[in-house]
Amino acid sequence: MTVAALALALPRRTEDRLLADIVEHGHAIVARAATVPDLLDVLSEGTPDVVIAGAARDTLSAGLIAACDARGIRLIALAETDADRRHAVGLGLFEVLDASAAWSEIQPLIIGGIVIPSRIEDPSPPVAASRTGSARAGTARGGTARTGTARTGTVIAVWGPAGSPGRTTLAINIAAEIAAAGHTVVLADIDTYSGSVAPTLGMLDEAPGFAAACRLAGSDSLTRSELERIAQRYASPSGAFWVLTGIGRPSRWPELSGERVTRTIDALRHWVDYVVLDTGFSLESDEEISSDLFAPRRNAATLAGLRECDHVVACGLADPVGMSRFLRAWVDLAEVITTDRVSVVMNRVRSSAVGLDPRGQVVQALRRFGGIESAVLVPQDQQGTDAAVLAGRTLRDAAPKSPARVRIRRFVRAELLPVPAQVPTRRRGRVWWRRAETAS
Known about the structure:
With about 450 residues, the protein is of the alpha/beta class.
């Protein structure tokens, strides 16, 4: 498509600025609208190829996005303020540009495919998406799906015992640090008891993404385009990632059967570089004993995630009660997982709960009672984690200098990501070896 029929819903000053370029490039303006209802009337009367609208609430809504998707119409939003941009991103729209953007930035979104950078504000060469309609917020800042190729992604399951040991916080920030290193990532909430990824990141969870993926997987309909449709996007200049939100009501756990979860994880492997699973706490599998053999099992999602993953991150709280719970469950975990790649992370290490030399005492207790030699100790940072929860952001975005974030970042780069290749560099006539640095 070199010439397009455009419907506009822009402030007058923005429209006046773009009008000459629109005419020069041969595009036709088939309608002008001032509000969302006006735009919906335009769509019902005719079908423009592209809608260019302001990102404010009076010209952009979820209903407009749905209407454009249903008709295969590309929707581009121009944001005048940060509030406008947040509104557009919250609705799940990807094509959001500044209202001051030059026509050279808008034109590529109108002709040909949808041009999508690998992640937000990434200057690397763009990748063209295959969808012809409006791409959603996740359609692709970072989404280089590889369905149909032999290469598969790595699955990391974050597990911990009962008692809120910090599974969700750890899973979110692991996903954030991997994405910041330049990889495509999806964070999936598979907890059937208290899924909390969505509220922690300030996302809507009326339509749980992971449950929808499981339903599609059950009918062999889980494709790349469907994943892009149901996943939400956590937008960040330092590294965005996809999110499949969990079930909002615990009563919906039968939707996450073991077979469906296994199929979904396999599909996610072929979509992104890394899959991070926020699992539930319970490892029990006794439902088959007390009920019909084929009855659904509430813990099937967690058990399937742990058995299908490549790396388990087992976390616990670094206080007497938390470590007692962790060490008791540690024995059960060893009977469930099939991978030998397990990392132990103890959260909220603090002297107020353990006493003098908290790090030494935690290490000694894990070694003595669990045979765990090398645990990762994350210091308590109540101020940083509170700031992240309040803003609905990751530690990297809300509190980048947080001691907890710094330790998680070091853990991710040391144990979860591939070791950077060593490249020779010449310095003062001698050859020195250094590790190729990844994005900070």
